[in-house]
């Protein structure tokens, strides 16, 4: 296969996708070339379009093609609440609950000192400016309940403490529909402490 | 995220990759946009280049950018032997052994009636023409030792029977370096039958 240079370049390029090693990349390249060249061309166009047109929302930092995203522009939203999430996927999960009508700030990551990701890399400065711009009264910390997510919430809480903002964190507890017998002990302990 | 049309198009387009569902596609899209836009652009270029320049070798049916691939053009190869494999990855595995100096025919698939893949879809006609072009004396069936691979080998053997060709199949047996205790019984049974 020494003359199939374009094929090897394609296999190498596919490895930039997260979770794709050399075997998966080979399988993907063969599949696209053999069964779905139209899909490959569509993907190429979508990649070009996305890298050239998608930027970060000036207010909430999520991905958008406009200066400010549709959620931030929506006038029916409660501008006094700001929900801080790690990724657009997390934002979308909160949004799908239908239980929240405020605005968001999307960190696009989390503090992770082991991976060299510090406060500057996840735009904490931008978050602090946004939270202190006068319109926000409550900041809801909805980072994940992992070690990094908790650390991120802690750093944000420290940074915003004593600035007249109400700081809240998503409730920790037993998931809906679960039986205590099968819930992990740390979760039950937290649910006991936070009982109401 | 209703205004991020390019993002949703990208997520949908990534799902054309085998083994990528909606969650993986989201993760890939976010990763590329957040951490590796250069990689995304390289991938788009590689996809375009590959879909436009890669075709099938006129002789062995593998992927190549030329009319005939480098392996088929290599004059040091034994043109009397033709090794039939399912995919370019299989061909590359045989090639890396260094134990084979003949030519190849790459089916680019296998018979799989359940998936609607019949003899026409894997170019058996082209293989028969190639095997009967007068230069080939031995056809080595190196399809995989799966149900579909065995069926494919059987159909090819039936099609070429009685045409003056020597038809061989890769030996089945105990893998190098393995202990009998841990080898599956079907393999040991085959190794017993094919003992020499």
Automatic annotation (TrEMBL), chains A, B:
Signal peptide: none annotated. The keyword Zinc-finger applies. HAMAP family: RecR (MF_00017). GO terms for biological process: DNA recombination; DNA repair. It holds the Pfam family RecR_HhH. Residues 80-175 form the Toprim domain. The gene is recR. This is Recombination protein RecR. It comes from the Bacteria. May play a role in DNA repair. It seems to be involved in an RecBC-independent recombinational process of DNA repair. It may act with RecF and RecO. SMART domains: TOPRIM. Keywords: DNA damage, DNA recombination, DNA repair, Metal-binding, Zinc, Zinc-finger. InterPro entries: DNA_Rcmb_RecR, Rcmb_RecR, Rcmb_RecR_Znf, TOPRIM_dom, TOPRIM_RecR. A zinc finger (C4-type) spans 57-72. One of its GO terms (molecular function) is zinc ion binding.
């Amino acid at each position: 296969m020494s003359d199939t240079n374009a094929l090897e370049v394609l296999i190498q390029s596919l490895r930039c996708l997260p979770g794709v090693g050399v075997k998966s990349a080979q399988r993907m390249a063969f599949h696209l070339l053999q069964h779905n060249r139209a899909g490959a061309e569509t993907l190429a166009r979508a990649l070009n379009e996305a890298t050239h047109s998608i930027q970060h929302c000036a207010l909430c930092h999520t991905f958008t093609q406009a200066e400010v995203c549709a959620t931030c522009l929506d006038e029916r939203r409660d501008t006094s609440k700001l929900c801080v999430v790690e990724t657009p996927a997390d934002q979308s999960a909160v949004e799908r609950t239908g239980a929240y009508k405020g605005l968001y700030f999307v960190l696009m990551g989390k503090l992770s000192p082991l991976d060299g990701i510090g406060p500057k890399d996840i735009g904490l400065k931008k978050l602090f400016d946004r939270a202190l711009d006068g319109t926000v009264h409550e900041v809801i910390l909805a980072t994940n309940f992992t070690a990094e997510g908790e650390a991120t919430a802690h750093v944000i809480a420290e940074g915003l403490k004593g600035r007249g903002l109400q700081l809240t964190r998503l409730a920790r507890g037993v998931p809906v529909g679960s039986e205590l017998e099968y819930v992990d002990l740390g979760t039950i302990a937290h649910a006991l402490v936070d009982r109401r």
